[in-house]
Amino acid sequence: MKNKPAFPRTQWTGHKSNDSYVNEEGMALLDYFAAKAMQSLIITWHGQLDLNELSETSFKISSAMLNEREKEKNGK
């Protein structure tokens, strides 16, 4: 499973004396998926998980999503 950036971009620095482009990786895709999963869990589980369980479950969902994404990319 590759933890690629969710929002990579190239940004122009725009400095007069040292104009250049800078690559910014942004948030990791694993973290982005985990944040989305956590939002759903918070809404649907109504405080029935403690914070550690909430985080752990969010990252398990996120890892499963990335694994499935990789399988689809490689033709299963």
Structure write-up:
The protein is mainly alpha-helical. The chain has a domain at 28-76. Helix content is 53%, strand content 11%. The protein has helices at residues 29-45, 51-73; strands at residues 9-12, 21-24. Strands 1-2 form a two-stranded antiparallel ribbon. A hairpin with an 8-residue loop joins strand 1 (9-12) and strand 2 (21-24).
Order of helices and strands: EEHH
How many distinct helices? 2
Determine Rg (CA atoms, Å).
17 Å
The strand line-up of the biggest sheet is 1-2
Mean pLDDT: 82
Low-pLDDT runs: none
SS-derived structural category: mainly alpha
Largest sheet: 2 strands, antiparallel
What is the terminal separation in angstroms?
A: 14 Å
Range of helix content: 40-55%
Short description, anyone?
By secondary structure, this protein is mostly helical. The chain has two helices and two strands.
Name a few traits of the molecule.
single chain; 76 residues; mainly alpha; two-stranded antiparallel ribbon; 2 helices; 2 strands; 53% helix; 11% strand; flat
Write the layout of secondary structure elements.
Blueprint: E1 9-12, E2 21-24, H1 29-45, H2 51-73
Antiparallel strand pairs: 1-2
